[in-house]
Fold:
Amino acid sequence: MSYVDGFIIPLPAANIEAYRDYATRVGKIWREHGALSIRECLGDDVPPGELTSFPQSVALKEGETVVFSWVEYASREKRDEVMDKVMQDPRMQALMDAGAMPFDGKRMIYGGFRTLIAL
Structure:
């Protein structure tokens, strides 16, 4: 079954278009190196919780929204291969070095997940 990297990102609402451009550029690099699919989703119904919530997970601030995104790969092995190629890609390095991220990367949450069920 496939493997997925998931991300929860705090995004200033004023940076939505900059994020769209950034994510499109980054996504093309990931796809070129073998990712099967990529989804970038803006929070629409993400209420704050009492114990846990998407807003709490990224210490959401006034004027920010939550981005929920994922990258799908054929397998964990393929993900590791793609990730290695992406991190060595000069285009990705330029995007990271230029401070082009339109969000606070220190509050981003991410992880890799094995697929349990695919319907």
